[in-house]
Design a protein that fits this description.
mainly alpha, CREB-binding Protein, Chain A, four-stranded mixed beta sheet, 18 helices, 57% helix, 5% strand
Length: 405
């Protein structure tokens, strides 16, 4: 960051020249407020000159034909109920799905093959006994397999059953390629089934089941509360079973923290540059138009009760008042005067019309630029570029004095 501690060597006689430009009325209310660059007031000056937005356009024409065709794709409730009843009653069933506890779920080969081509391939290789195909789905409880087959028929499900067997159903949806069921399981986990205790297990399962959205959701949850989650039993098990995944997560945590620190640093830097830009605006405002108790000698001042739209104006008034009365008034002798010298030189470097500019010493600092070392000049250029970047980012209607900045 370009340092704001830059200043140019100046003589006290130049301060006398400065005082010749400005008419300062004594006002005790501002005597203590002279730290303009340390102000934490909200940066709202860029809103003062933004024009009102145009009216909203009229409602766009809606293509009713497209809406009608879209309605044709909806499935009536009666149709879903018919398919659900076909599954529950098992009319004409020709497939028997055997679960882990040797229970049997009757179903239909045609329906299962259409709903899951992967399952249909397994059924082609299944043994046939008395006209019935037998296939076993191992390591899955009966309730999970029953809910899975029911979903293949009608996309119907019980909310409590989904919550109870959500991890089993996620595995089944991946193994037998049922994307709609995988999306349902992902949504169920995101809506509250994830906890600090199971998030690491779900993360590993999501990565194995190719569920990128759920993987991202789990990683985000781990990053949000890494300290608590890393102390759970699930994390310890993952550390023993999958140390590579733990290393990857630790790297992500470190990278995320670094990004947060970098983002915070840049935001703090930008606050400084915004304050400097507002100080430049307020300086032009005071020297060109005058404000309350301070301004050019050819202007009628409005008094301390007048309102001002420049948030940095009050602090700058106090700084100028101190500068005009300070007995030291050399760059290295007074902190507040030093800050004033910095602001005046910064304005001079940003000013595009020094011959018409009413800011004191503007032309003087333009000439003094030639005396700076290359290192100081590079730092000043960096500072000016940062402040100008803030002006551009705030928009074209931010400045009332665009010709001078």
């Amino acid at each position: 960051m370009a340092s704001v501690e830059l200043y140019s060597a100046s003589l006290s006689s130049i301060g006398e020249t400065f005082c010749g430009y400005i008419d300062v009325q004594i006002d005790d209310d501002y005597s203590a407020d002279i730290s303009i660059l340390e102000s934490t007031a909200p940066c709202s000056s860029h809103r003062c000159y933004i024009p009102k937005p145009p009216p909203l356009p009229s409602k766009a024409y809606k293509n009713t034909r497209c809406l009608k065709f879209r309605n044709f794709t909806s499935v009536p409730r009666e149709t879903k109920h018919a398919w659900d009843r076909l599954f529950k009653e098992g009319h004409g069933a020709d497939v028997c799905i055997v679960t882990e506890d040797n229970s049997c779920i009757l179903s239909h080969y045609t329906v299962l093959s259409v709903a899951s081509p992967v399952l249909g391939t397994f059924l082609l290789q299944a043994k046939v006994k008395n006209g019935m195909k037998y296939i076993k789905i191992p390591r899955m409880p009966y309730g999970a397999v029953h809910a899975f087959v029911r979903f293949l028929y009608s996309s119907c499900y019980d909310e409590e059953t989904i919550k109870k067997f959500v991890l089993h159903l996620l595995v089944l949806s991946h193994c037998y390629s049922v994307p709609s069921l995988k999306r349902l399981c992902t949504s169920c986990l995101e809506d509250g089934s994830l906890t600090e205790e199971n998030v690491t297990d779900v993360l590993q399962l999501a990565m194995d089941c190719d569920a990128p959205r759920l993987t991202f959701f789990c990683i985000r949850m781990i990053l949000k509360d890494f300290k608590s989650i890393s102390a759970t039993e699930g994390w310890k098990v993952m550390r023993r079973a999958n140390p590579n995944l733990e290393q990857e997560l630790l790297e992500v945590v470190v990278e995320t923290d670094s990004r947060k620190e970098e983002r915070s640093r840049k935001m703090e830097e930008r606050k400084v540059y915004v304050q400097l830009y507002e100080a430049m605006e307020a300086l032009l405002h005071i020297c060109k138009d005058g404000c309350r108790t301070i301004g050019p000698r050819d202007q009628v001042l409005r008094g301390s009760q007048a309102t001002c739209g420049f948030p940095a104006c009050k602090g700058l008034e106090s700084l100028v008042r101190h500068f005009s009365n300070c007995k030291v008034r050399v760059p290295g002798g007074c902190v507040h005067c030093k800050r004033m010298w910095q602001l005046l030189e910064l304005h001079s470097r940003m000013c595009g019309q020094p011959d018409k500019c009413k800011v004191p010493l503007c032309r003087h600092f333009k000439l003094k630029m030639m005396e700076h070392s290359k290192k100081d000049e590079a730092r000043w250029r960096m500072l000016v570029s940062k402040v100008m970047a803030v002006k551009i980012s705030l928009g074209p209607f931010t400045s009332k004095y665009s010709g001078f900045l």
